[in-house]
Amino acid sequence: MVPPTAPTRTKRRRGEGQWALGHREPLNPNERSKKDDDGLNVRARIETIYAHAGFDSIDPADLRGRFRWFGLYTQRRPGIDGGRTAVLEPEDLDDRYFMLRVRIDGGQLTTEQLRVVGELSQNYARDTADITDRQNIQYHWIRIEDVPTLWERLEAVGLSTTEACGDTPRVVLGSPVAGIAADEVIDGTPAINEIKRRFIGDKAFSNLPRKFKSAISGLPDVAHEVNDVSFVGVVHPEHGPGFDVWVGGGLSTNPMIAKRLGAWVPLDEVPDVWAGIISIFRDYGYRRLRHRARIKFLVNDWGAERFREVLETEYLGRRLIDGPAPDVPAVPVDHIGVHKQQDGRYYVGVAPVAGRVSGSTLVGVAKAAERIGSRRVRLTPQQKLVVLDVEESEVDSLVAELDKLGLAAHPSPWRRATMACTGIEFCKLAIVETKARAATLVAELEERLADVQSTLDTPVSVHLNGCPNSCARIQVADIGLKGQIVTDTEGRQVEGFQVHLGGGLGLDAGFGRKLRGLKVTADELPDYVERIVRRFSAQRNDGERFAQ
Ligand code: SF4
């Protein structure tokens, strides 16, 4: 591995700010900030200064930069509309409270951990908790004074917020049913745990060009096509179960589907190969322009063949084994409903609306699971929740109890396949509201489209983003909605959405078409979705999916 402070390649030419080519001088304010002080160093200042002296004592460079290395963003000040009525400076948007992201690698929680996560929300976050599409939990209304206590309580049960945000290796996605699914190729959990143990909080990887998103799963259930690096379960004809490696996927602006390296990696080598790939990103990633800094741009320029060659020759010192591609699921795998485990027991996947739960709900889930003898719960990349290890005799009572908590094991297709990002309620980048709008939309569609539901083999997915970023993966939804200000029929500037149609993962992997002019106001949204789903339902052939 190449140490970050001693690049071996010093050839200098105008480039993209790649360390490996000798560009060590910071080329923009973000790079300067990271060079001035490692983001991981901010924890000591929070614990010894800011938590005691309060919000006003926080250095702005820490507040808007390094706090992210521990999952902290200032949340949006209530009542600020995103610049429609005034020109805003960044500090105009800052509330004195924080969003705090708890990383939950692989989405794996014991019921004890879940209870602590829920209780902390009740005590310190005004009972807020959102399940994100990266299997994290996000709190809101966090005071800086309470952050050390939150860390202490989380770390006492093996959880953390370290590198939950920032230019770092973020949470590693994993199959929610790792180790128990009857159709799993291989359990990736040991590799996820090893990466977390060896590399999270390691200063070798705490100054990356941008964020780095990873996924490791024995099933195609972690949106592997749109992660920076993914290891997807596959059986090699000679070597048996292992992982197929994908690099360079990502959404936001310039979305790209990841490329296969054509390499098969056994479970125990995944952490080293992961370290090699993230090292390439650190050393060769583009640091000059932040909007071109994700690894997808490097992979796109190099191609998979050169990327693999550099990985093998400069970082691993050996050749990887060629391997086959994994099976592609015809329909999205979301683990909702009641399913049999390998051991004969069951897992129960339930759907809140667009990931919104509360601390009280999470405590309720922990209690409900423990009452029927389960000690394990998982979060999913679809903003859902799964209780594992349920005896057959307890399934019905658990389903009923979770239903009372607002978590449906047999949800309508609209609740099942709707996702939403944080939106303008708390996110400073947002242009429009999303979570409440998703809840309204789901309720409306359940009522309006009850007659159509049974004609759809798979749910039509609807994803809502509050801005051009893609925290709810709009480009790979059947109906993707990108928040923006639009003009209504009376010429007013109102909240609305640019529509992307026909995106998908798996067999339908590709990005939805963004049709210029296809915009809807927020008020028109239920009418629009109803219209488009009715038309699809009326015209589709048997087995035809929306994205086809
Ligand atoms: Fe915020 Fe935009 Fe991400 Fe939504 S998509 S959470 S509005 S940055």
TrEMBL record:
It comes from the Bacteria. Its EC number is 1.8.7.1. It holds the Pfam family NIR_SIR. InterPro entries: NIR_SIR_4Fe-4S (IPR051329), NiRdtase/SiRdtase_haem-b_fer (IPR005117), Nit/Sulf_reduc_fer-like_dom_sf (IPR036136), NO2/SO3_Rdtase_4Fe4S_dom (IPR006067), NO2/SO3_Rdtase_4Fe4S_sf (IPR045854), NO2/SO3_Rdtase_FeS/sirohaem_BS (IPR006066). Its cofactor is siroheme; [4Fe-4S] cluster. The keyword Iron-sulfur applies. It is an enzyme of class 1 (oxidoreductase). Keywords: 4Fe-4S, Heme, Iron, Iron-sulfur, Metal-binding, Oxidoreductase, Thioether bond. Residues 1-39 are annotated as: Disordered. GO terms for molecular function: 4 iron, 4 sulfur cluster binding; heme binding; metal ion binding; sulfite reductase (ferredoxin) activity. It catalyses: hydrogen sulfide + 6 oxidized [2Fe-2S]-[ferredoxin] + 3 H2O = sulfite + 6 reduced [2Fe-2S]-[ferredoxin] + 7 H(+). Residues 95-157, 339-404 form the Nitrite/Sulfite reductase ferredoxin-like domain. Residues 22-39 have a biased composition (Basic and acidic residues). Residues 165-318, 416-548 form the Nitrite/sulphite reductase 4Fe-4S domain. Catalyzes the reduction of sulfite to sulfide, a step in the biosynthesis of sulfur-containing amino acids and cofactors. Belongs to the nitrite and sulfite reductase 4Fe-4S domain family. This is assimilatory sulfite reductase (ferredoxin).
